[in-house]
Design brief:
mainly alpha
């Protein structure tokens, strides 16, 4: 057992008392003197001066070692002594009980191997379910974004290669694609929905700007020589909206004018001008005529598809010959 001089003991006790109030763990780290010895010195000094337990313990800032020391110090006290100790130290009996239970639980037995394996399997299953849930949430978000994109762009951009798409339409398409990708859609499926190649989209937005069609033919856009002037368009609208012609279609307006010796424009021009002015809505009880393309037929053997027009068969044969094997 180590022997310590009275001078060392007095200096250590002075550090533990006000105004220094150095904690026992700090003195243990500094001097290497066992904590039990330090606690004993402090307790004997307080008892000798009649001040045992006067200094309250800051329960909110106690370390785990200090709490354990308090539990050891109060282990042999009865209920009356424990209450007195708590009042002197500024603690609650419930705190001591909680600290004691924590110490007991720290020494609890380790779970069995079967329990550990069960917990591990449950953790793996939870991880797989969370991953599946994230995948389904992403798929659902992508489906919703594609539906919104399809609604905003009812007309697909597919068609003949090299056709002209003006700058305004390009900007609208790029803005809608950005919104869809921000909502959770991937660029590939979004472009496939619009029948647009991702490479075309990349070419449109080079240098962080949307590029217009750079072809000379698209830039010139020569107007036809027989294009109607604004005055002629206004004249067509004025004649079509006259009371005597308000109930007639252009197919009857043009012959009626021809009977009077007047020719303003053709029937197709009347229809086009009225359509551009949103004055060609369907009227009457009859259902509006519809134009539906017939379904394509495919022949895999002789005498399966017959046609009265041999040019259709020739065209189909050329397409078949042009296909890669």
């Amino acid at each position: 057992m180590s022997q310590y001089s009275e001078e060392l003991r007095a200096s250590i006790i002075a550090k533990m008392l006000p105004p220094n109030n150095v904690s026992v763990p700090e003195l243990f780290q500094e001097t290497g003197i066992p904590k039990d010895t330090l606690y004993t010195w402090r307790l004997k000094h307080r008892k000798s001066n009649g001040q045992a337990g006067i200094q309250p313990l800051p329960s909110a800032g106690l370390s785990s070692e200090e709490k354990f020391a308090v539990v050891v110090e109060t282990a042999s006290l009865n209920e009356l002594e424990l209450s007195e100790y708590c009042r002197r130290k500024g603690l609650y009996p419930a705190q001591l009980s909680a600290w004691r239970n924590t110490c007991l639980q720290a020494n609890a037995s380790v779970p069995a191997k079967a329990d550990r394996e069960k917990l591990s399997q449950q953790a793996k299953a939870i991880k797989q379910l969370e991953a599946e849930l994230r995948r389904k949430e992403k798929a659902l978000a992508e489906a919703a974004a594609l539906l919104v994109l399809e609604k905003k762009n009812s007309n697909a951009l597919g068609g003949a290669r090299g056709r002209k798409i003006d700058l305004r339409e390009r900007r609208d398409v790029i803005a809608h694609l950005h919104e869809a990708c921000a909502a959770g859609a991937r660029l590939g499926p979004a472009c496939q929905l619009l029948e647009l190649s991702p490479r075309t989209l990349q070419r449109w937005r080079e240098d962080a700007h949307v590029k217009a069609d750079g072809r000379k033919a698209a830039a010139q856009q020569r107007e036809p020589a027989n294009k109607l002037s604004a005055q002629e368009r206004q004249q067509i609208l004025a004649i079509a909206n006259q009371p005597e012609f308000a109930h007639l279609p252009p197919s009857q307006i043009v012959p009626a004018l021809a009977d009077r010796g007047l020719y303003i424009a053709s029937e197709s021009s009347f229809y086009r001008v009225l359509r551009q002015a949103n004055q060609l809505a369907h009227r009457g009880k009859a259902k509006a005529p519809t134009h539906q393309r017939p379904l394509p037929l495919e022949a895999t053997a002789p005498n399966q598809v017959w046609s009265w027009d041999i040019s259709v068969l020739q065209q189909c044969g050329q397409e078949v010959q042009g296909r890669p094997d």
